[in-house]
Fold each of these.
Amino acid sequence: MSETVDLRAEFKESGVRAVLEELDAEMVGLAPVKARIRETAALLLVDRARKALGLAVETPTLHMSFTGNPGTGKTTVALKMAGLLHRLGYVRKGHLVSVTRDDLVGQYIGHTAPKTREVLKKAMGGVLFIDEAYYLYKPDNERDYGAEAIEILLQVMENNRDDLVVILAGYAGRMEDFFRSNPGFRSRIAHHIEFPDYTDDELGRIAEGMLEAQNYRFTPAAKAAMAAYIAARSVQPHFANARSIRNALDRARLRQANRLFSASGPVDAEALSTIEAEDIRASRVFQGGLAHERKAAE
Amino acid sequence: MRITQGCFSFLPDLTDEEITTQVDHCLEKGWAIGVEWTHDPHPRNTYWEMFGNPMFDLKDAKGVMMELDACRKANPEAYIRFNAFDNTRGFETVTMSFIVHRPKVEPSIRMTRTEGDGRSIRYTHEVVR
């Protein structure tokens, strides 16, 4: 009888299912991203089974690029991805090292290589997440040291495929330019995952989830106010999806604290954990954004 | 003559896999690894040359092994050792140190005997190639 591998059992035992379920439960929306990650997980699981039976020979290329607008959950998903790759045994430690241009590129000649190497050493055995990767490459300045960092990165991505996985992240359009001018990256990245913007409805659910995690909740009127806030905010400039929502909630908590503080009399747990409509309605977003932006729009 | 200093020096030389496991152990304990090298293995020569900075915040031994490879390439005929530094408050010291690379031909240590006043004898040691 020939040797067999039970994929279902592998799926469960390796803990991959737990990670995917966690992803489903914790992340609102992002259906195409979840689908892609599921596919990737299936591919890696099958690859692992092939390896167990002596069919696969090489480690698959696992470097990825995450493209999407700010606040669409790229970093959070990268964290989950690191956990997933660790469970599947493709990275040894499964930690995530998140860096930007400043951490990789030096300020003077001979400063870049050691700096980049230092970061790479820390990322070994885990996932290196390069946020806003296109800043590494500045085409208008030929003396820019970013090119040196890119060169070292490419080398390590090729030679240390067993040791670390690199995830490049950034806005879709600028990442496209970056890949066009650095064809080396494109050919070394197997998985391109696009992060769609959240719908207003999804943002509403995200807001509630964020509050719940901090033991706050909306009154029904506040919930309606939040929906109106999201609708107004999402068409204004510098909208950063979930990040804008988090900031809005932080400000709402500030106003709530202020309201409770200026009201006389004792407060109970109920009052301390309730966000009222007026905490949200006071936002400048309802007057059409920041003063200078209003002027610019006129 | 085979120099014996630090941990494991009476054992056969560690292979790279064995070094990796030792380093993983150190990193698990939260110790930072520093790479040092010297041409002078005299026991009184405590301070060896540092090869780069000690490596803090590493999770995996691979980063250290890359540094070792670079050091071996730069100083193939030197002694190279790893120092594991424990930064726990109250310790703040090297807790483990072991040789990871030796030159092909090791120097020997010669003892010199000098007769002093009143026929007292003084001993010194020196490294001879």
Amino acid sequence: MCHYSTEVFSGMIEHCDSIEELKKEILPQLQSQRNLWKEKINQILSETGYSCKQFAQLCRVSEPAVRKWRNGSLPQSRDMYLRIGFAAGYHLEEMNAFLKRFGRCPQLYVKSLEDSVCMFVLQSRELDHSYATYLRLLEIVRQELVEVDSAVAATYTTQVITEQFSSLKDLDEMVQFAKKHVPIYRQSYLRLYKYIIAFLAINLRSENPDEGERKTSFHQLASEGRWPSSLRHCVSEVRNKKWFPQRNKIISLGLHLNMDDSAINEMLRLAQMEPLYSKNPIEASIQWAINEAKLVSDGGDVEGAEILEDLSQLVKHILIQLDLADSEYLIDDL
Amino acid sequence: MAELIVLENKQVFSYSLDAHAAWFLGRSAADRRENEICLVSGIVSREHGQLRNIEGQWFYVDNPGNKNGTFRNGVRIPRPLTGIRQPVFLENGDILQVRGPAHNDLDVTMLFVNASVPGEWMRFMLNDRNITIGSGKHCELIIQGFSLEERIAKLANINGQYFLSSCGQTAVFLNGRPITASTLLQSGDAIGLKDCHMFFLGTELIYSRIRKKL
């Protein structure tokens, strides 16, 4: 178990010279996500005193599902982490930390209807903090929004909306807040979509005749790069402003587009997620691979230029060599 | 409307960006195109970067291989991997700078403005005085505005050098970043006071009050 800070680990990865050093010196110090999760869920059950049966009822899952979690099996959706967080009795800050660190998914986002109702429940002094309460309130709010005209909207920053949200006192005010921000709910991740669309537009064709015309279209890129259909579907959803981002898909998309860590982290930030995490073995390996690609890029290594054609294949090659637990989902996407 | 305000050689130039979806930024070329922002400083590469409007959002894109890179709000825009161009969001009030190895008059400062109406640029001579800036009538530099405090910022002359500090509730930005203490100013620095933008030129300020786009 590593005792270094994330910043120290980032520095170690940056100065790591070879995959052998990464494999033998650095990665063994990191716990896999599965082991971390196993520790966490057992800690939750111990602290709350719930039996597997009781916990399963609170989370609205079967008892065997809870037992699997206790053995390290990871919950498969953000909603499931929310249920677990409610059952654990978390307040808002704890829930956000739990989602980001263990769920590897976005923290609660005030510009999302579902999330804002969840936040309202977690912050309420009167309401019972349970998943059941959250579902009940969500249904009430949704009913109120059915006929709200969302054609016209003022533009509010997240900060302004968060300030308005923090002053809500009761369900009526929550409903009025939701009605006012219906257009925003429908565009929660607009800046993320804009960023991805801009990246594609800028890199897939050039309007400067002096640069030479890039003839690669997205379809050609995806075809030559053998993108999985799920990832192509993500891009389609992005263009239609409908995509609900998942961390592994953001990272896979970034690697297929030859984005470096700053661009991938920008996408993660726009999706309300943490940046690439040096203490996660898979993400540490990705950071190392990108650093290697940058060294080749900066050094003008002609031989290395082939590798830079497809960063995703470089990362895939490295992940296969390292044989890390839980890396299959990412390797499949690459 | 989107504008790029360029400060170079102590002169201010304004480019209205809405006429084109793409603008090319670089050192002057003989055959200049209509959508080119031509700079003369030797630290700017001939093809330095681009401003692109994609689906209503403005981005800045550094050209790979430009020698000195570009700073956005005081932070250098990272160099992407070979062959990749990385967009950077442009928001109202963002500062783009090209800086040479020695921070001096060769540096170029650009202010991106996205406002409902254009601003008018005015000059204010400092005359080695201490200057208080705000909407109050006792300020040496009075800027009228519905959202400006009576006293917002102060420029203190200490041994011929000017130091910027905040003296109100409003955040004061220097080259796109909020200041937390009295800070030495250098010629070419961009100062942001709510919806008022300024350039410090050593002996004078060039400033404009621009209403933000709602």
Amino acid sequence: MNGAWMAQRWQRNPRFGLVLIALALVALPFVVGAGLGNTWLRVLDFALLYAMLALGLNIVVGFAGLLDLGYIAFYAVGAYIYALLASPHFGLHWPVWAILPLGALVACGFGVVLGAPTLRLRGDYLAIVTLGFGEIVRIFMNNLNAPVNITNGPKGIAGIDPIQIGGHALTQPLEFFGVTVPGLALTYYLFLGLTLLVMLAGLRLQDSRIGRAWVAIREDEVAAKACGINTRNVKLLAFAMGASFGGVAGGLFASFQEFVSPESFSLMESVMVLCMVVLGGMGHIPGVILGALTLTVLPEAFRHGAGPVQQALFGQVLVDPENLRMLLFGLALVAVMLYRPSGLWPEPRHRLELGAK
Amino acid sequence: MVCLIGANGAGKTSTLKALARMIPAAGEIRYAGRRIDGLPCHALIGQGLALAPEGRGVFARLSVAENLAMGAYHRAGHDERAAVAEDEARIYGLFPRLAERRRQLAGTLSGGEQQMLAIGRALMGRPRLLLLDEPSMGLAPLMVQAVFDVIRRVAQSGVTILLVEQNARLALAVCNRGYVMESGTITLAGSAADLLADPRVRAAYLGE
């Protein structure tokens, strides 16, 4: 099987390509698990969580053009809903299929709460208000342990139930036709499935009436109104949709970590997700996924690679890998923005701007 | 076809924006016998009012065809699809320049072409009243001629036009009736021919 033959097959039948990609995605956790170990399998699971988050934020920032710096608040809301309803903290152990939709719904409500007062704001002003909103949510989580202990404050909530599907907890390996699938790989499949769902939802939205209304608002709000678009409702819808995707991802995060604390939802996380959207290619779904995967995997690669590389080059570790990691990460961001200002994988239509017919 | 002329800062654009429900206004606004001052801006197009905003305001990163399609946004439903396609063809007939560039992004068009696109997009809503805000602004003289030729043709096709313009000579030449605005109040009104002959208008706005 050589490359030319595969390329030929691909052109003749795009389905063949899809099948190849699907097979690769199914095999990926086994390859990674066997070759790089469980740490990297966890990284892979996190990469998918971030892909979901980035796809959610892409609706707000990429489609509707509303700069949101507090997106992680919705992730936090989803995570805390899961933590409160499925942990020994309140002694509640709701099933996952009940909590995830509830988390999405509550996050959606928070999205409207954020959206409603900010309808008239744009650009930098909106960014500052959303930034404040993100911090408010985090600080609430930090302080809601008195007078009534709801969130357990900075100590966070531990012992969260892992996701159970059909009575099988995703932390346990599963025997499947004689093949043992490790728990982390099961989580991978679940996250992969949900990421694909979020992606399909995003693609459908983009092609819908609502999607076109979002783009119109992004391009020119006055003209959008003149075209008969109810800009208020359509903007609120963008916030609500983005927030509910964030809520689902938050719930998955809580069950995956089995622990949540306010620390996980800092401003840095919001900025990170925004970076994924911008770096990947705002408004372009495959680009955004690429951005999320890159920005999750690269820092981890630096973390694990920087020490050994220095050892090999200089015979000793000169700079703490942890510090070097952020430095290299920052440089990579600067380089991408300088050389590919519309992202790693921008929407093809940007090329049209050069005047091609 | 009516025009509202006046100097910079006389309140022409504000009047139009108030009509289009983009800024709050005191008092009553009536259109075709019905009050429209309680309606939100986006509902006006359903009432037959369309606005081509000042400074053109096209969707820069959408193609010409997509811009026109957005103009028909409120006309949802499958039965409308054929009618929308027909209108699109009609607008390409009106603006052959747009037809040539239908797949090009609106942001790459020249100023005059963008103005044509803004008018075309407003027409896609099948308005009975078209509000035009300074269509000559920032255009080359030849382009202004071309744009005004089209405006005249649109008016002949039965659409009422309210034109807000600083270029008084041009506006009065195409309109039937005119109003002159100064610091937010109408100071003169009459047929375009009368206004053109009025010595006060000639002195203040026509530079004679």
